[in-house]
Specification:
The complex is a heterotrimer of chains A (about 260), B (about 325) and C (about 280). Helix content of chain A is about 40%, strand content about 25%. Chain A contains eleven helices and ten strands. Chain A has helices at about 45-55, 75-85, 105-110, 120-130, 135-140, 150-160, 180-195, 205-210, 230-235, 240-250, 255-260; strands at about 1-15, 20-30, 35-40, 60-65, 70, 85, 165-170, 200-205, 215-220, 225-230. In chain A, helix 4 (about 120-130) crosses helix 6 and helix 6 packs parallel to helix 7. The longest helix of chain B is centred in the middle third of the chain and has 16 residues, at about 180-195. Chain B has nine helices and twelve strands. Chain B has one domain (about 30-55, about 90-255, about 270-310): Rossmann fold. The mean pLDDT of chain B is about 90. With about 280 residues, chain C is mainly α. Helices cover about 75% and strands about 0% of the residues of chain C. The chains are: A alpha/beta (about 260), B alpha/beta (about 325), C mainly alpha (about 280). Chains in contact: A-B, A-C, B-C. At the A-B interface, helix 7, helix 8 and helix 10 of A face helix 6, helix 7 and helix 9 of B. Bound molecules: adenosine-5'-triphosphate (2 copies), iron/sulfur cluster and magnesium ion (2 copies). One magnesium ion binds next to helix 1 of chain B. Chain C: GO terms for molecular function: dipeptide transmembrane transporter activity. Chain C: It is found in: Cell membrane. Chain C: Its main location: membrane.
Chain lengths: ~260, ~325, ~280
């Protein structure tokens, strides 16, 4: 179980860090293996900051993040990243544009699978690509700009799968994709959770969060204002902010005017 | 008719040959109409938007014409287009929020922009419009980084409509915003039209649920061609083109759960626009494809205001 | 992408002309001295000879062969340019990459250092160093130029690194357990390779100009001939009044040509790398 406990992040801003800004304030929630937790909130509410702290790209100012009761700061980064991985919002910025896209695999190999013979490695990649339903011929040995956003995001998930991860932080991974590709990536996440993966699904699209998650956390100005099973949050939102968010979701068959 | 686009073709010149990003698109836009332009990434939405205002160095006007308020726009001629830009046609480009000059205070930026168009700044009017989009007057004294994404987006909207253009093109202006800000932005756009700041509008996005909140008509493009164009409610409730049908059925809505109802995407990828094979461009992915589809399906008006380019629908 | 750059490179006249001139001059400077058996400072013949068959560029008031001086001078000038530009580029890169990537207090300290060097009165420092150390070889000159010229390069590299650091692929590399040094070298630097090349070219040209002006005011190397020194001597011995145009025109033209060609090539390279400037 991945657990956040009183996690706070204060950014120093301005020249010489003269001012401070509390981006995340005492956040606490947990992710169990095999479940998707949606982290929902408007822009600037601190969602990515939480994601980055879980991925240890940023140190929390206070509070602890632990896995199965063990503080993650006690784990070496390499061991930690074997268990916890992330995928980010912009598929095009996630790849170094001057290199081929499959370099993200090579990087993993260099650090984690140095001794593995070529043949075994190829088989491993093929298995991971198969899990994200990509055919090796279509995506390997290509530059990022030759692949579609959906393919790139799936490659990144495949990259995470090479490491037998237990938790995945998915930070707005579908907001840059178009509608029909979105659903493919969502379905993929849902399949992975059935294989025991715990997912932190960061989004500002409530419909998407609702589609795959077991539990939902609603964040407002760095504070958690609602936390519970997804059904409960969507059917009986307790906080006014959640209700406002829900009312703003564009619905295909109802217009905003008709709803209010 | 405000806008009349007839068989417009715009290609990108590349080392490997021409990318046929816009290949014979025709449509019209009435006074006061908001057209939602939707379609998969790479289908030519931005290309169409840009073609109506400024072709960049790689773009080539291959054929077709654009008429705005009865005048034919010289879209292939960068210099001759100048008098029309901003005054007749205005574009809010994709990623424009991040394109604001970070070293200029917003007020100064507005003034410089107007000067470059040889127009006087009407401060009262500007303040009135800021009011309308619920921005405080003091944003004019701020730098772009001091505003949130939604505020920047509304500021860009105010700037680009300041001279009351006939046609406003908004390219994916909501994609990076969260739902409540999206709603505010879309409501503002509607208000602009209702108050006559702009006569008509093209709203580009791939979020159909959002387009439907705003647009009178929705046009769906696929691989550089028009697939379907109809009143918004028809596209959403009774689409005729197989691509539109699949697109609509892949949208999750609040209340739909993976566990109860698994939605599906559209398998396959769109064709390359370098030298596409003739015939319907959706053929490889279309569940209804048959022999006839090896020929280009022409856009046909199947009922009033409902145009479909598909052999099965006609 | 590489192939595309090459495609535009071989079609870019500015780049071809600039690089062509540099290569020809470099060739003369590198190969030329092997064909001249006497040292360039030796008194070889008649004084004040105009250019002719025996002495291609004539001789000066001491009877030194000006062609020999020119050829050796080219070599020194290129050497100082490459060394000075190289040292400045390396320091600028190290400082810029570290400050931009690490941020925080490292950035603040390096920024302070950059600003100090930037406002340092270079000439005064050089006079003092000269008086105290008194070593005046071409190598020392290059070292000095390198040590004082890097700040603007460091600044612009820092800014670029800073914006690249925020890109997701850098975070992704960190998530792959890759260390900072490798991320800078293998993720960030390759994205700026064209920019780094342009920076080096500008530093190279800048070093040659600075070296020539140092030579001209009498702070040049004492153990070598350079184009700047030739100019200085021509000036000192009133070549202009004596009508010895062949003494000062070739070195002057040489410096102008090298620096000019470098800048033209630089503009050409910029067009090759920057798709917005490309003419198709
Ligand atoms: N490096 C930083 N330095 C200072 N402030 C920061 C930094 N990164 C983020 N912030 C601020 O922290 C707050 C939370 O940012 P964060 O990126 O976590 O938001 P978010 O919920 O992910 O928003 P979005 O939906 O726009 O991605 C914002 O107000 C932001 O301006
Ligand atoms: N400068 C260019 N050179 C060559 N091809 C280009 C260029 N710009 C765009 N294209 C191609 O033209 C086609 C249409 O691109 P366009 O940007 O209009 O798509 P879009 O519908 O706006 O997509 P998105 O939803 O991703 O913004 C794409 O296939 C794209 O690859
Ligand atoms: S024309 Fe044929 S291939 Fe194209 S959409 Fe219609 S049925 Fe499908
Ligand atoms: Mg974020
Ligand atoms: Mg676009």
């Amino acid at each position: 179980m991945l657990k956040l406990d009183g996690v706070t992040k204060v950014y120093r801003i301005g020249a010489f860090g003269g001012q401070t800004m509390t981006a995340v304030d005492e956040a606490g929630f947990e992710i169990k293996p095999g479940e998707v937790v949606s982290l929902i909130g408007e822009s600037g509410s601190g969602k990515s900051t939480i994601g980055k702290m879980v991925l240890r790209l940023l140190p929390p100012t206070s509070g602890t993040i632990s896995i199965d009761g063990r503080d993650v700061r006690q784990m070496g980064k390499r061991d930690y990243y074997r268990k916890v991985q992330g995928v980010f919002q912009d598929p095009f910025s996630s790849y170094n544009p001057v290199f081929k896209a499959d370099r993200v695999f090579a990087m993993i190999r260099e650090v984690y699978f140095k001794g593995v013979p070529d043949k075994e490695w190829t088989a491993k990649i093929e298995a991971a690509l198969d899990a994200v339903r990509l055919s090796p011929g279509a995506v390997l040995n290509k530059f990022p700009h030759q692949l579609s956003g959906g393919q790139l995001q799936r490659l990144l998930i495949a990259r995470a799968l090479l490491l037998d991860i237990e938790y995945l932080v998915a930070d707005e991974i579908i907001s840059m994709l178009d509608a029909s590709t979105r659903i493919d990536v969502l379905n993929l996440l849902a399949d992975l959770k059935q294989r025991g993966l715990g997912v932190l699904f960061i989004t500002h699209d409530l419909a998407l969060g609702n589609y795959i998650s077991e539990r939902t956390v609603v964040l407002h100005k760095g504070r958690i204002v609602e936390y519970g099973p997804t059904d409960a949050v969507f059917e009986q939102p307790e906080h006014a902010y959640t209700r406002k968010l829900l009312a703003s979701v564009p619905q295909l068959h109802t217009k905003w005017e008709d709803a209010s | 008719m405000t806008l009349e686009v007839d068989d417009l073709r715009v290609y990108y010149r590349t080392l490997k040959g021409d990318v046929q990003a816009l290949d014979g698109v025709s449509f019209g836009l009435r006074d006061g109409e908001i057209l939602g332009l939707a379609g998969e990434s790479g289908c030519g939405k931005t290309t169409l938007g840009k073609a109506l205002i400024r072709l960049d160095g790689r773009m080539k006007h291959v054929g077709g014409s654009v008429t705005l308020d009865g005048q034919v726009l010289p879209i292939g001629d960068d210099v001759k287009m100048n008098p029309y830009r901003f005054k007749q046609v205005s574009l809010i480009p994709q990623y424009s929020m991040s394109a604001m000059n970070p070293t200029r205070k917003i007020g100064r930026m507005v003034r410089e922009l107007l000067e470059s168009r040889r127009e006087k700044l009407d401060l009262d009017e500007l303040h009135a419009r800021l009011d309308l989009v619920e921005l405080p007057k003091d944003v004019l004294g701020k730098y772009p980084i001091e505003l949130s994404g939604g505020m920047k987006q509304r500021m860009v909207m105010v700037i680009s409509t300041l001279l009351n253009p006939s046609l406003l093109i908004a390219d994916e202006i909501t994609s990076a915003l969260d739902v409540s800000t999206q709603k505010a932005v879309v409501t503002t756009l509607k208000g602009f039209r209702d108050r006559g700041f702009v006569k008509s509008m093209i709203f580009i996005t791939h979020d159909i649920s959002l387009t439907n909140q705003l647009a009178d008509t929705i046009m769906v493009m696929y691989a550089g061609k028009l697939a379907e164009k109809a009143p918004a409610s028809t596209v959403v409730n009774a689409p005729k083109h197989p691509y539109t049908q699949l697109l609509i059925s892949s949208l999750p809505e609040v209340g739909v759960r993976y566990a109860d109802k698994r939605l599906t995407g559209i398998p396959g990828n769109p064709p390359s626009l370098l030298d596409p094979v003739p015939g319907c461009r959706f053929r490889d992915r279309c569940p209804l494809a048959f022999e006839k589809c090896a020929e280009d399906p022409p856009p046909v008006e199947v009922e009033k205001d409902h145009v479909v380019a598909c052999w099965k629908a006609a | 992408m590489k192939a595309e750059a090459l495609y535009f490179a071989i079609r870019n006249t500015k780049l071809l002309v600039g690089a062509g001139i540099i290569l020809v001059l470099l060739g003369i400077g590198v190969i030329g001295p092997f064909f001249i058996d006497k040292p360039p400072t030796e008194y070889v013949g008649m004084q004040m000879q105009p250019p002719g068959g025996e002495f291609w560029l004539g001789t000066n008031t001491f009877g030194q062969d000006l062609w020999a001086q020119f050829v050796h001078g080219l070599r020194t000038t290129f050497l100082v340019g490459a060394l000075g530009g190289g040292i400045a580029a390396v320091i600028g890169m190290v400082v810029g990459f570290l400050a931009g990537y690490k941020g925080g207090w490292i950035d603040e300290i390096l920024n302070m250092l950059t600003n100090i060097v930037l406002v340092l009165p270079t000439l005064a420092v050089l006079f003092i160093l000269n008086a105290y150390i008194g070593v005046r070889s071409a190598g020392m000159q290059a070292l000095f130029i390198g040590l004082t010229q890097w700040p603007w390069a460091a600044r612009s590299i820092r800014a670029q690194t800073f914006s690249l650091r925020g890109r997701d692929f850098v975070d992704l590399a960190r998530l792959s357990g890759v260390g900072s040094g490798r991320i800078i070298m293998r993720e960030i630097a390759p994205n700026m390779s064209s920019y780094l090349l342009l920076t080096f070219i500008l530093l190279f040209g800048g070093s040659i100009l600075i070296a020539s002006s140092l030579d001209f005011i009498g702070l040049g190397p004492t153990d070598a001939v350079s184009l700047g020194l030739m100019l200085q001597q021509a000036h000192q011995w009133s070549a202009m009044h004596l009508g010895l145009w062949w003494w000062f025109v070739p070195p002057g033209a040489g410096i102008t040509l090298i620096v000019g060609a470098l800048y033209v090539a630089n503009v050409g390279l910029d067009e090759v790398f920057n798709p917005k400037l490309r003419e198709l």
